[in-house]
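Progress report, Aim 2. The chain analyzed during this reporting quarter is listed below.
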Amino acid sequence: MEILKTLSLFIATAFAEIIGCYLPYLWLKEGKSIWLLLPAAISLGIFVWLLTLHPQAAGRVYAAYGGVYICVALMWLWVIDAVRPAVTDWVGVLICLAGAMVIMYGRQLAR
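Predicted structure tokens for the chain:
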């Protein structure tokens, strides 16, 4: 159950970070309204707050979060950017997620 909670929290964190970065991208690269910076800032604030909800040490959370972020970013690529990830992208995601699991829970399993 803890793994599912952690994974859900990481996924929400990744979406908050991606949205917080994507909205300024739309403003800078696609000429959208500067007002997109306001929800972007709010989203990045939520991103930071979500990272603080993990009970593990910050460095461990940041390291493991990276693996989940990569997975969510590839889903974003597929759904929002309409670019289908390659098989090698998904293989990379599996490797990253396995690494994230080892970082977050490896010490507990090794006991």
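The chain has four helices and no strands. The CA atoms of residues 20 and 40 lie 4 Å apart. These observations will guide the mutagenesis work planned for the next reporting period.
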